[in-house]
Structure formats: structure tokens, C-alpha cells
Amino acid sequence: MSLRPKPPTHGGEDAIWQDVEFGAYAADLPLWEQLAAEARGPVLELGSGCGRVAMHLAGAGHELIAVERDPELAAELERRATERRQTGGGSVQVLAADIAAPGWPARLQRPAALAIAPLQVLQLLDGAQRIGALGQIGRALGPGGRLAATLVDESTIGGTGPSPPPAPDMREVEGWVYSSEPLWVQVSGETLRMRRMRERVSPTGDLVRRVHDDVLHRVQPEDLEREGTEAGLSPAGRRIIAEGDYEAGSVAVILERA
């Protein structure tokens, strides 16, 4: 009989790793706060994960609808949203759906005034999927509604890199220590590949190490504006999210429904 402790099951490992790798990122929050303040109606977050942005905006008093395709992440966000509602900290409606699949906008109670796609969510989709998603997003928006989607600013990738190298992102969960160390970013052909070394250490010191890659499709702002136009969304400006010491910058492309 093994006496080794089992990894935490509360929320699931996908949710834990998302918290580890993205939970502390805050450079984009001022932009989402500004756009949400300008919107007159619900804010729709696309690919919301565990709710880093949705929970933040709900806490500021905005009505949030969070769309997430991963069942584990959607369930964890629902748990967190329920806790938030019980403490009077704002409301988040969670919608388990794939933004590239047809039909999910019909499940909304009313049209959104603003849709946001943080952390390069649309770059997880290939061209055909992205155009399909833009069409569905257009159906989810009310007249005059806007979509703001971030893309990697490739001009901020490369160089000799910072010195010293970035420290791993870390979090402790139920006595287990999770860490994720950024290794490199590779720009190749049509994709961006970001490699991390993930480590998990049990309360008894057992170590598990695995390489993890995130792969994004390369999309330039003008590409997304063209695709948006094909889906009935007009270009309405761009915003810059500055690079950090260890983080690439982003360009937020704004598209508007007539």
C-alpha cells in the first residue's frame, strides 16, 4: 500500500497550472478596466480560464459572462464565481462553450456590449476557426458592441534576453509546490512556441518534472482586422500593452459591430 500523498484534486491540475503561470499577470488589467467602464452592458470574456480577468472586473461592479471550453477550467470558475456571489463580490455567469463552435451566443440572456479576448486567446485558433469564432462573437454583441482581442507583439520577442533569467512562477497548493520556469520562445513559420519546465514537489519531497509547450498561431493586427471585416466587424483602433521585464508586449485589436 502506497503512503505517497496524492496531488490536490480541488480544482484540478489544469486550473492549478493556469493559476501558476498566468494568475499574477496584471499588465492588461488597466485596459480591460477602461473598456469595461466605457461599455454600457454585459462584458463577455472569451477563453476565461479560471477567471483571472472576469473575477477582477466583476469585483469592480461589472456584469460578466465568462466563456470557457475546457470543462475542468469552467467548473473551477463556476466554483469561484459561486463563492464570490455568496460574499457579495460581484456576479459572473459561466458559459461552458467553444467560441469557434456555432450556437453558443443563443445561450446568452442578452447581447454583450463588450467582448474581450485576453492572453492571445484568438491565436490558439487556426484561420478557419478564428473566422468562425469572429462570426459567433459578432452574433453575441449588440449594435455598437466592441471586441478587444490581444495578439503577441512580435517586435518585443527576441534579443539576448534579461539577465538574470526569470525566476520560476510558483504556487503552493495543499502542501504541494508547483513551479513553472520559462525556457524559450521560438518563432517558426506560422507558429509561436513557448516552452516551460513544470515541476511539482509533493509534501514528502517527491519531484515530477515535465516540459510543457504552448503553441500560438502567428496573427498580425492587420490580419485580424481583415478577418473581422469578413465577419461583419469593423476595425475601431488598436491599444498597446507594454512588455514587461520577462513578458512580451501585446497589441489589442478593437473591432466593432455596426
Describe this structure in words.
With 258 residues, the protein is α/β, with parallel strands linked by helices. It folds into two domains: 13-155 and 219-257, Rossmann fold; 159-215, S-adenosyl-L-methionine-dependent methyltransferases (Single Sheet). Helix content is 26%, strand content 34%. It contains six helices and eleven strands. The protein has helices at residues 13-22, 29-38, 52-59, 71-86, 127-140, 221-230; strands spanning 43-46, 64-68, 92-96, 112-117, 141-152, 169-173, 176-188, 191-201, 207-217, 233-241, 250-257. Strands 3-2-1-4-5-11-10 form a seven-stranded mixed β-sheet, with helices on both faces. A four-stranded antiparallel β-sheet has the order 6-7-8-9. Strand 7 and strand 8 form a beta hairpin. The chain is globular. The N and C termini lie far apart (65 Å).
Short description:
With 258 residues, this protein is of the alpha/beta class. The chain has 6 helices and 11 strands.
Topology:
Blueprint: H1 13-22, H2 29-38, E1 43-46, H3 52-59, E2 64-68, H4 71-86, E3 92-96, E4 112-117, H5 127-140, E5 141-152, E6 169-173, E7 176-188, E8 191-201, E9 207-217, H6 221-230, E10 233-241, E11 250-257
Parallel strand pairs: 1-2, 1-4, 2-3, 4-5
Antiparallel strand pairs: 5-11, 6-7, 7-8, 8-9, 10-11
